[in-house]
Amino acid sequence: MIRAWKPGVPGVSEVFHAHFVGHAYPPHTHDAWTVLIVDDGAVRFDLDLHHHGIGTPSVTVLPPHVPHDGRSATEAGFRKRVLYVDTSILGADLAGAAVDQPTFFDPALRHRLHQLHLVLARPGDELEAESRLALVRERLCTHLRRRAEPRPVPVHRLAGDLRDLLDEHTVDGLTLERAAEVLHAHPTHLVRSFTRAFGLPPHLYLTGRRVDLARRLLLAGQRPAEVATAAGFYDQAHLGRHFKRHLGVSPGRFTGRRSPASATAATSPPSSSTADGE
């Protein structure tokens, strides 16, 4: 079961609530930061080729442009709530610290995120949501800056150039031969350099970028048939196949469950109506 929507809060590109049993995310990346809490079950994931696990007491942040996957740690599956926030909320300079240690055991931070999700599910309370988001941001930044000196995620120059090229051609696509011509590199060397730097081959990276674009267009109200070509897929069936592999549901079911009015988690505790302070 999935509920997803775009709230009217600057810096938050998507709110995503899901209950998965048996679904496993393939390796992929996002433009935005992923701020994740698990309400039931446990999740295992690889981030930058390192293994991690998270459960209900913790908060996890995954930086943009760093490959990760995800799967349930138990046969019963898991329930999670996610905020996708851009670098105006969490700066790109914090990415290295998040890669080193993406999970925090901070009950106060987790409670603040829970309260923020409740407010985001109520249209008309955007000012309160912005206030709560500011408190979440402050605490996340404190955690990340307290870690070892933030470092940039190392990227081989050739791999980074190919990533930029793929980003420029997310919709229209790019052949490996053309990329090799532009970057003056052998195609095989391009693939190996990219995979070594980012943990997934160029074609999977491009597919993930297209799925990310498709979900934004769907949340903006476009129909799946329109989204398919607008996001660079051959047709609606092509979109549906990759969308379901990434998110566990079809594009139609993704948009059909995005209503924020029903987005609060059933087992979550109640919250007060005003933003909490220190």
TrEMBL record:
Pfam families: AraC_binding, HTH_18
Record keyword Metal-binding present: no
Membrane-spanning parts: none
PROSITE patterns: HTH_ARAC_FAMILY_2 (PS01124)
Stretches for region Disordered: 248-278
Regions annotated as coiled coil: none
Highest taxon, organism lineage: Bacteria
Segments of skewed composition (Low complexity): 259-278
UniProt-listed SUPFAM superfamilies: Homeodomain-like, Regulatory protein AraC
Residue span(s) of domain HTH araC/xylS-type: 160-257
Keyword terms of this UniProt record: DNA-binding, Transcription, Transcription regulation
Keyword ATP-binding: no
PANTHER family registered for this protein in UniProt: HTH-TYPE TRANSCRIPTIONAL ACTIVATOR RHAS-RELATED, TRANSCRIPTIONAL REGULATORY PROTEIN
Name recorded for this polypeptide: AraC-like DNA-binding protein
